[in-house]
């Protein structure tokens, strides 16, 4: 419960030294990079080979999608259904890219190379920087540290899992859901997010016994538009009620 | 082979959306509804995935040691523990409950 908001950070932030940016970036890059270990273990424990596990970290390089894919495959999901779930989780990176492209102002030729690093962590570090130079340093150092560490720890985790044998006996099958929960928790900021999460849990669990593996997660994604639509309708109804209109006929939906 | 197909599809799809964000002119996706939906989509997916990987055994719902582990992770999150500690708490508690025959 420390009170830090009173500090006039904006003034000092203007001339943030490069070393401070690098320190921020390394902190995030190292902490998250190490969790590639959890992915390597989970992936190998789900039955993927060493080459498949490492290919995922090298080529996909967005943690939530990787965990989702190996989870869906382990549950016996169709490969394309499994890939669809992982893909939808990755869509958020497009919106990070939109923000980053304005801040980084990269030449077009460089963008295909920078694209692989457009993820949660690099965006979080880059957006927190005060100047273009700091944004570029933050993005590059976080991206490089994370990419190298994430892939190295994936390899170690997969090798470790193969050495251990039965990863479930070590409780490592709980790593996947714990990672998802840790990613989800900071997103649950308002009632809308909580409603979406609750509805998604109901759909995801309720449809599990009746739909093919991997499909319930995709249906659960509909919780997002459903809650938005319901809230939009309620806001509309409240608006009309406040103005003393008569009961809506239902024909006026936009 | 199926696994490689899934990996290839995921890799291509995930790279494409990352690149699209950098290449698409600003403003194309800036409609409030689209932004709102993009922010809520991961919430829905992560919540469903957390629940399934905690309670699913194949296509059946079960209550086993994983639930205790994920509950421990939730407590760790409430205590603002760092990411790795949250995952470690889940793993250790799950293993502990299993060792006790849970």
Automatic annotation (TrEMBL), chain A:
The keyword Membrane applies. Its main location: membrane. The keyword Cell membrane applies. The chain crosses the membrane at residues 20-41, 137-158, 170-189, 196-224. Coiled coil: none annotated. Keywords: Cell membrane, Membrane, Transmembrane, Transmembrane helix, Transport. Pfam families: AzlC (PF03591). It comes from the Bacteria. It is found in: Cell membrane. It is a multi-pass membrane protein. Belongs to the AzlC family. This is AzlC family ABC transporter permease. It comes from Streptomyces olivaceus.
């Amino acid at each position: 419960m420390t009170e830090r908001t009173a500090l006039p950070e904006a003034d000092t932030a203007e001339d943030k030294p490069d070393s401070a940016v690098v320190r921020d970036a390394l902190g995030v890059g190292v902490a998250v990079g190490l969790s590639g270990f959890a992915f390597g273990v989970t992936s190998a424990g789900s039955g993927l080979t060493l080459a498949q596990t490492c290919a995922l970290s090298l080529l996909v390089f967005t943690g939530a999608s990787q965990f989702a894919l190996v989870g869906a495959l382990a549950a016996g999901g169709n490969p394309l259904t499994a890939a669809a779930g992982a893909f939808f989780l990755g869509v958020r990176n497009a919106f990070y890219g939109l923000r980053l492209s304005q801040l980084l102002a990269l030449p077009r030729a460089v963008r295909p190379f920078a694209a692989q690093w457009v993820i949660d962590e690099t965006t979080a570090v880059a957006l927190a920087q005060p100047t273009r130079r700091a944004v570029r340093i933050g993005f590059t150092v976080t991206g490089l540290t994370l990419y190298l560490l994430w892939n190295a720890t994936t390899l170690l985790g997969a090798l470790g899992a193969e050495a251990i044998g039965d990863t479930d006996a070590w409780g490592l099958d709980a790593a996947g859901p714990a990672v998802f929960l840790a990613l989800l928790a900071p997103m649950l900021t308002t009632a809308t997010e909580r409603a979406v999460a609750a509805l998604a849990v109901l759909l995801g669990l309720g449809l599990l016994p009746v739909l093919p593996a991997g499909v319930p997660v995709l249906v659960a994604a509909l919780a997002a538009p459903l809650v938005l639509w319901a809230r939009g309708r309620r806001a509309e109804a409240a608006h009309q009620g406040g103005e003393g209109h008569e009961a809506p006929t239902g024909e006026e939906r936009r | 082979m199926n696994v490689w197909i899934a990996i290839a599809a995921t890799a291509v799809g995930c790279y494409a959306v990352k690149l699209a964000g950098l290449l698409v002119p600003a403003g194309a996706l800036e409609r409030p509804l689209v932004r709102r939906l993009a922010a809520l989509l991961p919430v829905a997916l992560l919540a469903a995935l957390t629940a399934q990987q905690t309670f699913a055994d194949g296509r059946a719902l079960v209550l086993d040691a994983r639930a205790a582990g994920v509950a421990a992770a939730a407590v760790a999150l409430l205590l603002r523990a760092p990411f790795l500690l949250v995952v470690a708490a889940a793993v250790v508690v799950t293993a502990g409950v299993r060792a006790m025959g849970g």
